[in-house]
Design goal:
Elements: H1 2-8, E1 11-13, E2 22-23, E3 33-36, H2 43-48, E4 53-56, E5 69-72, H3 76-87, E6 96-97, E7 102-103, E8 108-109, E9 114-115, E10 120-121, E11 126-127, E12 132-133, E13 138-139, E14 144-145, E15 150-151, E16 156-157, E17 160-162, E18 167-168, E19 173-176, E20 181-183, E21 189-191, E22 198-200, E23 205-206, E24 211-213, E25 220-222, E26 227-228, E27 233-234, E28 239-240, E29 245-246, E30 251-252, E31 257-258, E32 263-264, E33 269-270, E34 275-276, E35 281-282, E36 287-288, E37 297-299, E38 304-305, H4 306-326
Parallel strand pairs: 2-3, 3-4, 4-5, 6-9, 7-10, 8-11, 9-12, 10-13, 11-14, 12-15, 13-16, 14-17, 15-18, 16-19, 17-22, 18-23, 19-24, 22-25, 23-26, 24-27, 26-29, 27-30, 28-31, 29-32, 30-33, 31-34, 32-35, 33-36, 35-37
Antiparallel strand pairs: 1-5, 20-21, 37-38
Helix pairs in contact: 1-3
Active site: 236
Subunit structure: Homotrimer.
Pfam families: GMPPB_C, LpxD
């Protein structure tokens, strides 16, 4: 129990000598499992839970049923994530190169790295210690992977430099040619050579089937701690600051720059060459066509400040109701 409370960043109120074997939701967790509560709407489930311990805020600790230990923390969801990681740690590399893997000439693979079945490591690539390269993953020529990166099955990487602990989930595509072309007088298109790279900072995560295009002249850069959800598109020369979040099916067009800790919600679309300020938040399905100031919240298409959007929505609703009464 002491180790669990320490991992959660809090203290336990109850029997501190109990042992636990795992984690689970309030509704199904048993006496040897740890659960959590961070929303008052689930108080009825808390009162009926059989969980042996619950990670929760101080103000709700008196609601736990008899026999359940309260683990009091400032941030229950974060605390529970750290507890869950105690029971389900990320797998460590099993050093070695599978006999079916293909290693190109001049590639450097750390003896502490794991290279899975049918993986391909291109010529001159560098694979750092503790990296895990999954089955059928492809690492392009000259790519550099820092320590403890994980490239999941069928992901591909080219023209890229990765920091420490970068994760590419299955099917992610990083470093491919950006969408750049020049029209010709006779109506054809000629591809503009894409000469830049992708730079992924420490602990960046790229979701399944997400795409990050390499730069056209300069580089595409994702700052440390940035996370892309599944099916996200990042265009060439996009740059993000630290800790940005881009949620599923959102797209960011070329050369747009995000400050630190920007959040882009699902299916939002950002046009190119924009400046999005630090800690700005872009709502779901927003169409962003202009710069967004730091710490602003915008939504709608075209995107506008959140309060303005809801005022407009309310007016349109009243107008529709009024029109309906006159027909």
């Amino acid at each position: 129990m002491a180790a669990i409370a320490a991992a959660a960043g809090g203290r336990c109120e109850g029997d501190g000598e109990r042992l636990f074997i795992g984690v689970g939701p309030l509704q199904t967790a048993g006496p040897e499992e740890v659960s959590f509560l961070d929303n008052r709407r689930y108080l009825p489930q808390l009162r009926e839970t059989r969980a042996g311990a619950v990670v929760m805020a101080q103000g709700l600790a008196d609601q736990v049923p008899e026999g359940t230990v309260a683990i009091v923390v400032p941030a229950p969801y974060l605390g529970f994530a750290r507890v869950a990681a105690l029971f389900h740690p990320a797998p460590a590399a099993t050093p070695g190169i599978h006999p079916t893997a293909v290693i190109g000439p001049g590639a450097t693979v750390s003896p502490e790295a794991e290279i899975g079945p049918y993986a391909v490591i291109g010529a001159g690539a560098e694979i750092g210690p503790g990296c895990i390269i999954g089955p059928h993953a492809a690492i392009g020529a000259g790519c550099v992977l820092g320590p403890r990166c994980r490239i999941h099955a069928h992901a591909s990487l080219s023209h890229a430099i990765l920091g420490e602990g970068v994760v590419l989930h299955p099917g992610a595509r990083v470093g491919q040619e950006g969408f750049g072309f020049a029209p010709t007088p006779d109506g054809r298109f000629e591809t503009m050579p894409q000469l830049g790279r992708v730079i992924l900072g420490d602990h960046v995560e790229i979701g399944a089937n997400a795409c990050v295009d390499r730069g056209s002249q300069g580089d595409t850069v994702l700052g440390a701690g940035t996370r892309l959800d599944n099916l996200v598109q990042i265009g060439h020369n996009v740059r993000t600051g630290r800790g940005c979040i881009v949620v599923g099916q959102a797209g960011i067009s070329g050369s747009t720059v995000l400050g630190d800790y920007v959040q882009v919600a699902a299916q939002a679309g950002l046009t190119g060459h924009l400046q999005i300020g630090t800690q700005a938040r872009i709502g779901a399905q927003a169409g962003v066509m202009n710069d967004v100031a730091a710490k602003s919240d915008v939504i709608g298409s075209p995107a506008m400040p959140v309060r303005e959007f809801w005022r407009m929505t309310a007016r349109m609703k009243r107008l529709g109701e009024k029109q309906g009464k006159t027909e």
